[in-house]
Every structure is written in structure tokens, then in C-alpha cells.
Amino acid sequence: MPTKVKAISNPFDKRTLIVWGALVASMTLVSGVLLVLEPAPLAPSMGPVLTVLDNGPRGTDALFATSSPIRTGRWQTIVIDHSRSTYGSAQSLGQVHQQLGYGGLIYDFVIGNGDGANEGEIQSGYRWDRQLDSMLFASNDDPDAAWYNQHAITICLIGNGDEAGFTDLQLEQLVRLVTALQDRLNIPSDRVLLQSNLTSTTSPGLHFPASWFRQQLLNMDVR
Fold this sequence. Notes:
There is one protein chain. The chain has six helices and six strands, in the order αββαββααβαβα. It is an alpha/beta fold. It folds into two domains: 30 residues; 168 residues, Lysozyme-like, CATH 3.40.80.10. The protein has a six-stranded mixed beta sheet with strand order 1-4-3-5-2-6. The protein is globular.
């Protein structure tokens, strides 16, 4: 036979309700202040990860499955840069570029070196996915700079090419990516450039095999 349980007084008497009401009001006020002070979320610095491994005729189709359609004739050149760091990914670079006021990752593609992103992994940025202008040059004031920002596909190799060479897989994937872009977008080899061709830098670095890379490109006439 169960024993009788002593009755418990109503916890929601008038005094308790007043205390709880004051507590809820203060918590709501604090939450509102924190919401106002919270920094805006980072712009998306990295789109889907695209690892190009299939050598078949449709192996690189994922590169062109962008959320905004690729306009015919829009992209007319490709520029290769390096991150000048031994570590990185589209995400980490995008966070740095966001803090610098560029609205997220400035590159269209990033190729990992195994430290921060898988070796040879091709990562596409949100600019490529949305078909936005690149940020090869920070300002559009100069007509040449504006042209490159509007028409250049930018690729960044993770690494510092002035201090050491890039991995074989990175270079292999770079060739796959560039030649796929050349073929699909009708970009001739003389319009595949290194950053050093445009600015007074050594990018993508003194250890970048420029002559070898040039030999791997598609020799094609503009159609």
C-alpha cells in the first residue's frame, strides 16, 4: 500500500511569478544585446570540394556545374598564384581575405598540398560557383586591372614557391584543372599566365616549373 505523499505547495505563487518574470525579461534583454553585438557571419569562402581524378571524357564535368550559368566568352585568361604559406585551404584563405575586407576567398580555385587540405585536392570558391568577378587586383580603377578582374580565372597553389617546390600531385592536378578550363572555355595556352607575368612578383614562385608547365598546356586556336 503506497504511503501518502505530503502535499507540495504551488511553486507558481505570486511572488515566484514576479521573480521569474524579472529573470526572463533580463535574459531577453541580454540576448538582444548579444545579437546586436555579434559579428556578421563570414561570407562563404569555399564552395563544394571538387577532386578531379577521372581521366574520362566526363571526368571534369563537376567543375562546370556552377549555381550561376557560365556565360560564353566571359572567361578569357587563367592566372596561377601561390598562397606564400606552407599551410592552407580555401576555407582558411577565405577567412583571411574576409578579414582584409575582400568579402571572402579572392580565388576561383585552390589546390591543396596535404597540409590544411588534401594533397592535390581542388577546391572551388564561391566566386566561381556564383560566376562573380575575381579579385586578382584589389581595385578596378585601372582599365587593365578591371579587365583581368572581369575575365581572369584565378587558381592558387597552397605553398610558398619561392622557398620550395610544389608536390607532384599538386602540379598534376593543376594541369588537369587548367587544361579542362582551356578546353571547355576555349582559352589558348598564351592566355594561361603566372602572376609574375602581370605584377612585379615571382609568384607562383622561383621553384615553380614554368617551362614544364607550359609544355603541358593545350595548344589550341581560339574558336
